[in-house]
Each structure stands twice: as C-alpha cells, then as structure tokens.
Amino acid sequence: MDKNNRFIVRVYSFAIAVMLVGAGFFVSGISERKRLERENAAVYSRAFSELVGYVCSINTALEKMMYVTNPEQIAAISFDLFRQAGFAKSDIGQLPISNIDLDNMQTFLSQSGDYAYNLTQKAIKTNQITDEDRENLNMLYNYSGQLAQQLVAMQDGINKSNKSGEVLRIIQSDLNSSNVPQLTNFNEVEHIFLDYPTLIYDGPFSSNNIKDAPYIMLENAEEITVGQAKTKAADFLGISESKLKSVGTTESNAASYNFEYGDKFIQVSKNGGYIIDYLANRKITGQLMSDDDALNTAKAFIGKIIPNAESVLKETYYITENGMLIINLAAVQDGVILYSDLIKIGVALDDGETLFYEANGYLQNHTVRDLPEIIIAVEEAAHAVSPMLKISSVNMAVIPTESKKEIYCYEFKCENADGKEYLVYVNAETGRQESMLVIIDTGMGKLVM
Q: Which position has the higher pLDDT, 201 or 175?
C-alpha cells in the first residue's frame, strides 16, 4: 500500500506597481482560490485516508469476533468496532460528497456496530454465541471486505495523484452508492475474501503507545554524565567520540542525552546509559541480502548489546519494508515469552547495516517475573479455543493488558479452514480466553494485529 501523500501548500505574494493594481487583485484572487483548493484537498485526503483505515479496522474486528469465546473479549472488540464506526461516519461527514447518496454505507457502519452490541449482550447473558451468530458475523465481515477493497483502491488512486482536482474527482465520482455493499439481507451477501496489509502493526502487543509509562530498568539506575553517554553512543556506532555531536537532552520518563553523527541520531538514557533509540537516515539502494541473512545480522548485532541475547531474547515477527527488514525481539524467561519486553531492529538489505534500533518496551518493562503456577492443563485450556480453529502449536507467554496488568497465558497458534493463522491466548490460571490476534502474511513477512 502507498503511504498517504501530503500536499504542499505554497503561498504566493505579489508586488505590483500602482498602475497594475487591478490586474494584481485579479491574479491574487486566483492564487488565493488555488491555495484554498489545495488546503481543502489536503483535508479531504486526510479524512478519506482515515475512513479507509477505520473500515479496514472494522473488517478485522468482525473477523476476530467470529473466533473469540470469552464474552468479555467480545465486549472489548465490540467497543472498538463501535468506536471505529463512529470515527468512520465522522470522516464521511468531512468529505465533499453532499450530492451523493451514501445511505448504504452509513447503514452498514451503523448496523455493524449495532449487531456487535446486541451480540455482546447475548453473549454476556448466555455465555455463548451460536453458529447462526457466527454465520452472520462472517457475512458482515465479507461486506466490510467488499467496502474496504473499494476504498483501498480509491485511496491508491488518491496517493498517486498530486492535484487537488484529481483528489476531488476520485472522491466525488467513485464513491457512490452503486459501488457500496447493500445490506438488505444477510443471506444475499457475496462471500469475498479480502487480505489487506495496510493497518497491521509490528508484532503481538506492540509497545508503540506506552511512552508515558515508567521505565523499570531506569528507575534505580545510576545517572551518568554526558561524557559517559558519548562513550556509550560511540561504542554502539563503532566510531570515535570526536565524531559525535551533542544535540541536547530529552526530559521524560526516559531522560536522555542526544547525539548526531552525519545522518545518524542516537539517544542514550541518563540513568543507566542504555541505548533507547537509534536511527540512520539514508537511501537503501536495493535488496542484496536474503531475509534469513538479515535476521542473522540483527541477532548478531543485538548480541553485542544484550548479554546472552541468544538465550534471553526470541524473534517474534518481522516485515520487510522499503528495503529494510524490521524484526521484533521479545524477552524470554524460562522459555516463557514476555511480550511487553520488546526490542526492534531494522537492517538494510543492501549491505546489512543496522539503520534502526528501538528499546522502549524492553527498558520500560524488563524485569524478572514471578510467574504463577499453571493451574489449567494445556488440554483443558485448549477448550477455550474456538472449535472452528485447528491448533498447530503451543507456547507459554506473558501478555500485557490495557490496565497495565500482565496475564500468564498459553499461546495457541491456530488455523482456520482456509489456512489463515491466528494466535489465541488462554489464561493459564483460569482457562479463560484473554486475547486473540490475526496473523497477516504480507508477502514481506508475517505480522499480527
């Protein structure tokens, strides 16, 4: 998928002689009108891009609801679906389509949320959802797939356009009720499978949104000087300290000293002297390395930073993007995957250089866990997995929750009848299904959402 293009708004100024004032006002008026058109096009493009994202998220939420078995999970996914549907309808209201009848799309968004809500109430009362419910969810899922397919195709056209007129033309001419799925009868829907890798993130329980949380590894660590931080940054980069330029500090829960070296930027924590972030901004000329070689390069690199990395870190998922392989590594304790403790590494596929390193999740969460006793046997825990899924492997894992609590779980890797893969997490103490993720094979690696 192309990333959203941003339109550059340029403001023209005119200096004109008094004798040409009339012509000047005329030209200025045209320029102002064009400027406003470009600004409006940027707003429309953003709203449409968000609409695409929300519809695709609804598609994934409906897919998950077909397989979850825990009523609380159904409620959580349903809430997310409500939220996405509301945002999608808000974005529709920002588009220049007042002359186009979009009742069918609005109805679809409303009915998806309403049906999920009603299903939640039923699941809470009866502690189950029926085969008929799952069939209806599957049909709604296919409707959302049809709609997502159309919107993604339109978004691709907008991304390739760099003119406000083209943005308006695509939105106004292509987004019409004849191309929007008709929600007349669940039994009349056409089953269309749509795989869309545009909204996936980079691994189970990604730590991207936890930067305001405290950093466990830094709290009691000794504070270092800027000189000591420069030494650590130079060692990380394999250069002499004299080549590094100090570019100030960052004050946060992970206060850091910041340095630059050419196109490279690196942050070293004031407490403990850990590398927090590193980024090299350069053009990648092509893919000369295989993914396996790049994975081995990433593992060798992390081995220089984390003692015994091969035994305390485990590769989870990776993706190849823009000539760089980005890999997630999670901490491991006694064979148990600690999904909160994540390190991300990006390796250039032209020469194997490490271009990206991010350890926020690891520094925030890594500590020795007091793992509880396993109360539920794996055979019993497997009963919490939907009978529509076939279990292919089992791991033990600690997963985070939105309330910051961690849960000790069985991680069941499963497949549906079509061979699509899922991760189902079942509480090892209660036997309840706690979470479920969809594995996306992008052709450039496997990710989950």
A: 175
